Amino acid sequence: MNKKKVIKNIFIKGPITSDFIAKSIESHKTKKTIGAHELFLGQVRSDNIKGKEVVAIDFTAQEKMANKICHDIKESIFDNFPIYCMHIYHSLGKIKAGDVCVFIFVSGPHRSDIYGILKLVLNEIKKKASIFGKEIFNDESHQWKVNNNYD
Amino acid sequence: MNKKKVIKNIFIKGPITSDFIAKSIESHKTKKTIGAHELFLGQVRSDNIKGKEVVAIDFTAQEKMANKICHDIKESIFDNFPIYCMHIYHSLGKIKAGDVCVFIFVSGPHRSDIYGILKLVLNEIKKKASIFGKEIFNDESHQWKVNNNYD
Amino acid sequence: MDYTVRYYGQIAELVDSNEEFIFSEADTIQKFIKDLIQIHPILKGKTFQVAQNNQIKREGALIRKAVIDLLPQFSGG
Amino acid sequence: MDYTVRYYGQIAELVDSNEEFIFSEADTIQKFIKDLIQIHPILKGKTFQVAQNNQIKREGALIRKAVIDLLPQFSGG
Questions:
Q1: pTM for the complete prediction?
Q2: How confident is the model at residue B4 (pLDDT cuts 50, 70, 90)?
Q3: Do B40 and A38 touch (CB under 8 A)?
């Protein structure tokens, strides 16, 4: 499950559909040593900023660098936790409010093996992955997304 | 989203399908103040116990009590965390290794609002919900599941 | 009094039944458990909890006409 | 030297381009940034990082013929 040599492409053009997530869950049914999964889903939130409403986030990236960083993040998790699988996906392009733009999936033998990992991985992605979000408002103006420690 | 007066039925006959999980995710797309979801999935693990392999867990329950306890657990989470939605599902009947038997789903405005909640809720369910698991081996013998703090 | 007694999990397996009607003069949980173990000696020393009206009851009076649930250790999740 | 320079996010918006070919005698990151700001004064005081061969470089020699990426603050997730 852990093919350390291959750098996977985390990027998906457009939103991450519930169908995609379902297929990802389904593909783990054959791995019968897994007892626990945790999934994080980041959904584009329709924030209200100075009376204007966020209707979408347009994501771009330096894809190669971001893929390498996510690969390194995964490696470091595999080195430090007894997990079986980890997957990271991130959207590119204009993702509407209500749609999912980030999907992190971790699986291990017991629940205690996977707690806290989603938080760790997402923090690392937000800090280190060369991805850029442009928040688009309902009046077609925009602002550049700024990451913080809680959002 | 938080209908405190209604005690929901957490039980699903048979495994929790990835299709069911997908529909549950999909139903949150209209809730545009949500920014972060976390999902816990418990999968029946094919443990090897003294040379015998677990092929399924057969779940039974005192359903009314378990539903009430899960309702109380949810209430206490809503009282203590700024989340928007929480759903708990548990299988009844014979669930094969590789199939999902527990599904906990929590959603909130920011990622920092929902961290740690899955762990808390699952611990409470394992301790307090009147659900009983019978581990069935490949030779058709069985043993009664015993919960611990990590599994 | 005739009590409807429901058994769950390993307890149901031990007494080989999910539900029984048990006549008992007992008016407290403790006395009822004594009677029950006389009927089902296999339950002696076993761990279980008693519930009535969907509430766990550790001691005190039995509620007349309410079903009695016998619950072994929980092992959901 | 002709350098291929790629711009991302807000930086691309500021210079109104995703990719440019820039002639510069600079042989270090610092010197190159100086040249760049002369060409695009709007970048003065802006926060960005420079990468070559998909590696962030804070200082030191420029790699000849390698594309230069100009990356504003990350805001994925």
A1: 0.95
A2: low
A3: yes
